[in-house]
């Protein structure tokens, strides 16, 4: 009997850095600086250097990173925020929490990322309808693959919109030799444990090249604090990254480049084994996937159920990201229906993908042989 292969593994890495982790955590415990310890600024500098951007601001989660970025732009009632219908719920939740309206955009069947032609059509429809102001585009780098940032940036520049990169699944990915973090006006990262750089709890960061935005983010994450501690300049939130998570992330950063390289090798091994048998996420020219997840597209839900059962029988993990497009979720359906006169156009690709996609084991502590074995089980069950 062969060994199980987990979808994620958040523990294997610990063995490599356990002493360093224990030492760093003990240092924070000894210091008593649990909030705003020097480790937070140290991590921010390392993140900015890694991404090649000017500023990094640590925050409490990827969701809060998105929220702080939108609060800084003053996004709220009357504003249309364009985002893909095929993504994690947090992307759509944030504009609604702020009183803005999410406008769901379809994705491409090949890349699973936002479809630029559909984005243009929906921006035009919102303009024609006249009730909402086109304010922002949130591009999601789904499963680690960069969205078409050249096109999104050009559209945002033309229409005076805010370009926000939800790179929660894609830290480490790059496009045209620039890492994510220096595309868009701002980039949101998540350090949820299973993301490419994961903490031992919640955490996130905002990356930007804009000094004014970075300063606003620092203020907003600390209750809108001004230049002195009890000056409150604006309505903010409690959105800080805590010192323990920052120090854990510093220890993990020492392994990050090597882990990314292994994710890329696994992605290549899967692509080589699976191309021609199932749909694989297509990599556009110039894009480097960080492989937060490795996701295939099967012909239909029945085939997917069969493949998933065969994997499970071999103790190989798999997952469905995502089983429902956001506009079909009860929380969002009403907002979707009401935002454009005559009703919005259908989101056919997003709807189809939800019945077809399957994510296979992807973490840097599995081998290329594991990927090849998982791929063979998939092919055997088709
Ligand atoms: C994980 C994720 C988030 C939210 O990150 P949290 O740190 O869990 O709040 C947002 N967007 C996408 C696309 C994600 O995958």
UniProtKB/TrEMBL annotation:
SUPFAM superfamilies: PLP-dependent transferases. Pfam families: DegT_DnrJ_EryC1. Keywords: Aminotransferase, Pyridoxal phosphate, Transferase. GO terms for molecular function: pyridoxal phosphate binding; transaminase activity. The modification N6-(pyridoxal phosphate)lysine is found at residue 195. It comes from the Bacteria. One of its GO terms (biological process) is polysaccharide biosynthetic process. The active site is at residue 195. The keyword Kinase does not apply. Belongs to the DegT/DnrJ/EryC1 family. PANTHER family: TRANSAMINASE (PTHR30244), UDP-2-ACETAMIDO-2-DEOXY-3-OXO-D-GLUCURONATE AMINOTRANSFERASE (PTHR30244:SF42). This is Aminotransferase DegT.
